[in-house]
Write a structure and sequence with these properties.
Helix content is 42%, strand content 25%. The protein is an alpha+beta fold and 83 residues long. It has a single domain, classed as Glutaredoxin (3-Layer(aba) Sandwich). The radius of gyration is 12 Å and the shape is globular.
Length: 83
């Protein structure tokens, strides 16, 4: 199962990234856990300069922007291929 984390404090952009991630999981038809990380200390443990951030299996794939569903779907498929 993939582990997907949305890094952010709960702003509208962070919520949008969470929805994009959930849509991509549904589109890919994979088993994945999507969690929100709102604790600033936990967010700062990742090498990102701005939120929202998106992490798949502990690899930062996006930071500071809202990716498209197709992009996230590709990242999910790449993460599955490298497992």
């Amino acid at each position: 199962m993939l582990e997907i984390k949305v890094l952010g404090t709960g702003c509208p952009k962070c919520k949008r990234v969470e929805q994009v991630a959930r849509d991509a999981v549904a589109a890919a038809g994979v088993d994945a856990a999507v969690t929100k990380v709102t604790d600033m200390g936990a967010i700062m443990a990742y090498p990102i300069l701005g939120t929202p951030g998106l992490v798949i299996n502990e690899k930062v794939v996006s930071a500071g922007r809202i990716p498209e569903v197709a992009e996230v779907t590709t990242w999910i498929m790449n993460a599955l291929a490298s497992q």
